[in-house]
Design brief:
Length: 329
Amino acid sequence: MDNKRRLVGSAARRSMFGRRTGIAVMGIVAAFLSTGWAVSSSPTPLGQVRGTGILVQNGLRVPLEGGPFPAVSGARLETQGGMLRVAVLDGSWVELGPYGAAVLEKTQAGLRANVESGLLRFHLPAGVPAFFQTEKMQAASEKGQIRDGEILAGPLGNTSVFMTKGNLPVEDLGTHRVSVASSANPVDLGAGTAKIRRTPRPAGLAEGDADLPAGAKPVYGADGHALGYMPKGGGFVSSPGVVPPLSHPIAESKVPSTLPGATPVFDKHGKYLGFVKSGVFNTKLENDPDYTPFIVVGAVLAGVGAGVGSAAAFTSTPSTAVPVTSTSP
């Protein structure tokens, strides 16, 4: 009997020890979670990015030229002379134009795009929701229809929303008034937005053709390198290196003071033509005392339809290839 009681007592002590050990282990795990020591979950995949610019994600700044390259939720896109397009896993795509910045997130409710500056084009298949935001507005798409459109976050915080297919309810964050953007009714928010003109999208240059489109004039940066060209009808087509650089930089005395972060633009004679900032080219036309703003468009999206491998995504040197006709819609 004594042996039996000793055996029962020993089993009870082992059981209590096991429960205490389990409780202690759970307490340690809870402590790890509360102090941030636990291993973080892997980033949420967003899609594939192609083009020329900077991809900022996972604490890294990755220079891109070509693609495809994997992007994750929270990725920040930055462009200068080029463009970046993200093919999102849900079948939609967004394309950031020259001289812009945007942050993209993949949420349970769909794509969330915060357009900080420049022009963001987008395509949403039927049934695919998305949320867009700038300094001036926010817009949430509903399911059920195909949507194609553009959102411009200009240099002075002004915003323009233009749709080519479908419509998009746009809320002014200042007044909370909601307006519906459509192909017949663009929504303009902020001073001077309605004056912004659209640069006609170029058909592109034939492969191996070094000539500019008829009537186009090359434009240069202060360092003497070509930034792109002004089409015959006005505007700005970003195409870095489309023509050879000038024999010398622009004289410092001819470089005026502009807005912080702006890029001054000159002709081949060193004449100041205006400046580019946040996807908008501000130029002075003849007999116009004020600046006339044009939306900057890109001549070609590097890597789209070109079958460029992911290794090219780490190339940081400017492309020397002659622009070819864009395959982007």
